[in-house]
Amino acid sequence: MARLAIRNLVARFPGLDQPALDVPAFDLDAGARIALRGPSGSGKTTFLNMLTGLARVPEGHVTWDGIDLATLGEGARDRWRAANVGLVMQDFHLFPGLSALENVLLPRRLRWRGAEKGAREEALGLLRRTGVPRPDQPVETLSRGQSQRVAVARALLGRPAILVADEPTASLDAEAGAAVGALLTDLARETGATLVVATHDPELIERIGRVAHLTAGRLAA
Amino acid sequence: MLRFILADLRRAWPGALAIALIIAFATALGITVTLQERALRLGSARAADAFDLVIGAPASETQLVLSSVFLQPAPLPLMPGAVMGELAADPRVAWAAPIGFGDAHEGWPVVGTTGALIDGLGGIAKGQGFARLGDAVVGARVPMAPGDTFHPVHAELAAEGEVHQGTTYTVRGVLSPTGSPWDRAILVPIEAVWQSHGMEAGHDKEGDARHHEGALDADQPVNPAAVAAPNAPGVPAIVVRGHTIADAYNLRQHYRGDRSVAVFPAEVLTRLYGTLGDARSVLSAVAIAAQALVAAAVLLVALLHVTQRQRQIGALRAFGASRGVIFLIVWGEVALIAAAGVAAGIGLGWLAARLISARIEAASGVAMPVEFAASDLGLVLGLLAAAGACALIPAAIAYRQSPAAALRG
Ligand SMILES: Nc1ncnc2c1ncn2[C@@H]1O[C@H](COP(=O)(O)OP(=O)(O)O)[C@@H](O)[C@H]1O
Ligand SMILES: [Mg+2]
């Protein structure tokens, strides 16, 4: 379970007069679900990068369960994210040449202590749950919908307390998008993960139930 | 982690193979130069080892050694025949044998000498030595067997095909292999050479022998005393072995004068290598430069490859991989390809040196030992260290890749 508190978060990029992101205060309860909506270039990805420690917090505080990401270095943010965050992106970022199962396990295996005991069984269970029929199928032969299912399974391995998705259905057809959207919300509910999804997809927004609007870097509930 | 590297290599195998091959060829170049140079040096030193001392008329010492040790055909001035008699009587001499060049048979040099040289070269392996003037003993590589006969030709006239029609030798024995150019020689009694060139004892016709061509009396028995006679014809070279090393040094001292020169073949070879030393360092400099160029090219390819895959690499980190592990993987992958190339290059270089040596061996008779030395380990370790150091650069680039930028694509 993870609780989020953001204070005075400001992110600027060189060449832009306005800050790309300006969030004086934003809170989420543990296990909450929220959709983030806004036009392209409004700062959604920048916001998610701050939430997940993918980028440094330049100004202000992003605190998850008392841990302020602004105080962590790059390596520490990597470790925190590996332990707490499951990520699903618009592009699947699957590693060609490996099977679906190996792709789910890959980020865990590429750690000093390797994957936990039982990770393989957990991954197989997740692939079954997300509806990937053949775990040993090479990922380059999967359809787009199946690829995103593998990515969802990868995000959920290790039961992260935080699930973050950046336009997870944008590159899928309506049917596959609906299935992936359902998986994300159902699995977040099942595991009790706090879910943050940047999306334009009305069906997904409705499924999540709560939406925040981002316009030119400013949030409005 | 290793499985991941292998899976990645399996996917990109044509490129990896091409790079490993390029590294292998560059490595092989350096290894071949090193091994071949060593084989030449060791091989010629061992060939020169058969004789302690070579004595000849005062002229080029280098040519004297090249002619007597390597049987290189070249006209040598003659020494007075009395020198051989003196050496035969010298108590410091274990054995001494005159050698007379000038004839050949189908490209195999025919050398006039005495039984002492046959014993000195290691003796007869098959058949017997000289008994009569028409007898011949062939080196281990000469394709003739006891019972075969031949007519020699003047070496300098061989192209015109002037055969000593009146001269017929019969092969009586085969020498034990020596690993020296003498394996390609046909040995005949030196008296027979004198007779067939009209240079009987006491009628020394130095230099114009071929105008006085005589017929060989093949059945006349060999007379060892004729060679040591004070009025014996002149000879171009005498090879000598002393009883002790001190004797050899004394003899060398004694026979250096205006009548003759005496040289240790090893000493002349060392001098020769001294002058060739520059060529050797040029050659290894070329090999090193080639290796450096290849290292640069490989580095470039590795950088392109990593840059191309920055997204994948960064994404792995975003999804929870450790960046230290990613560093290690990229480093390991590049280092693995390079190490495989170096290993293959060592084998390839050895093979090339063996092939070159086999050709030189067949042409010259000098046995070429292609062998690794302890110092080669330094070369190989140096190459591996350089490969490992180069691999750090793409690894560092992968390490520094921002995961957020990678996801943005
Ligand atoms: N690395 C960057 N450097 C400069 N400008 C950036 C960078 N990342 C994002 N931006 C800018 O910040 C703004 C917000 O971008 P982003 O968070 O990607 O928006 P969204 O995800 O809502 O489309 C855009 O104007 C974009 O051009
Ligand atoms: Mg975006």
List the helices and strands and how they pair.
The complex is a heterodimer of chains A (221) and B (409).
Chain A (H helix, E strand, L loop, with lengths): L3 E8 L9 E8 L4 E5 L6 H9 L8 E4 L2 E2 L5 H11 E4 L11 H10 L9 H12 L13 H13 L5 E5 L7 H18 L2 E5 L3 H7 L2 E5 L2 E3 L1
Chain B lengths: L1 H10 L1 H36 L4 E4 L4 H10 L11 H8 L3 E13 L2 E6 L1 H6 L3 E4 L7 E4 L10 E2 L2 E2 L14 E7 L10 E4 H7 L27 H5 L8 E6 L2 H10 L6 E3 L1 H44 L1 H9 L4 H42 L9 H27 L2 H6 L1
Parallel strand pairs in B: 3-9, 5-8
Antiparallel strand pairs in B: 1-10, 1-11, 2-3, 2-7, 2-10, 4-8, 5-9, 6-8
Helix pairs in contact in B: 1-11, 2-9, 2-11, 3-9, 9-12, 11-12
The structure holds adenosine-5'-diphosphate and magnesium ion.
Q: So how many helices of chain B? A: 13
Number of strand elements of chain A:
10
Estimated helix fraction of chain A: 25-40%
What structural category arises from helix and sheet content of chain B? alpha+beta
The CATH homologous superfamily of chain A: P-loop containing nucleotide triphosphate hydrolases
The overall pLDDT average of chain A reads 93
* Total number of strands of chain B: 11
Provide the list of bound ligands, each named once: adenosine-5'-diphosphate, magnesium ion
| Model regions low in confidence, pLDDT < 50 over at least 5 residues of chain B | 202-212
Keywords:
heterodimer, A: 221 residues, alpha/beta, Rossmann fold, six-stranded mixed sheet, four-stranded antiparallel sheet, 7 helices, globular, B: 409 residues, alpha+beta, 2 domains, eleven-stranded mixed sheet, elongated, binds adenosine-5'-diphosphate, binds magnesium ion, ATP binding (chain A), AAA+_ATPase (chain A)
